[in-house]
Amino acid sequence: MNRKENPIMNREKYLEKLRDLRDNWSDTIPNKIVHGPNGPQVKARKAWFQAIYAWIEIGLKKGFIDNEIINAYEDFHNYIGDSWLCERLTEKQDIKQGNKVLSAVISRVEQILTQA
Q1: Average pLDDT rounded to a whole number, residues 61-86
Q2: Number of neighbours of residue 7 by Cβ within 10 angstroms
Q3: What is the pTM of this model?
Q4: What is the 3-state secondary structure (H, E, C) of 3-61?
Q5: Out of 1, 10, 21, 66, which residue is the most buried by the measure of CB atoms under 10 Å away?
């Protein structure tokens, strides 16, 4: 989908985006820091962590997820904190924590969709 398209976001499309972040981005940590939008889709980059924060916020604001996910979100934030803003390199544990919060949000969205 190109950026000019403006599809109506619904819970199903939201779930697709979360799954994309968790399943289609590589857990591989490259030897060099990856910069820019044209690099490989690896989780060892600031953009991936920013996307997690952004998509959880979108889900909360649009009502796609509820407050039951707040604990997982806070655990993730407490682990990552502002450290991803500094120059330290991404570690496997960082990616594990990102995948963990994405899985929690995905599970909750799936539960909500099943109940609807």
Answers
A1: 83
A2: 7
A3: 0.86
A4: CCCCCCCCHHHHHHHHHHHHHHCECCCCCCCCCCCCCCCECCCHHHHHHHHHHHHHHHH
A5: 21
Quick one: which of 113, 104, 115, 110 has its CA closest to 22? Answer: 104
* C-beta separation of 69 from 55 below 8 A: no
Q: Mean pLDDT over all residues of the chain?
A: 86
Q: Are 43 and 24 in contact (CB under 8 A)?
A: no
User: pLDDT over 90 for what percent of the chain?
Assistant: 54
Residue 80 pLDDT more than 90?
no
Here the tokens at position 78 are 């407490």
> Confidence class of residue 9 from pLDDT cuts 50, 70 and 90?
confident
Q: Please list the residues that pair with 42 across neighbouring strands.
A: 26
Distance CA(99)–CA(30), nearest Å, equals 18
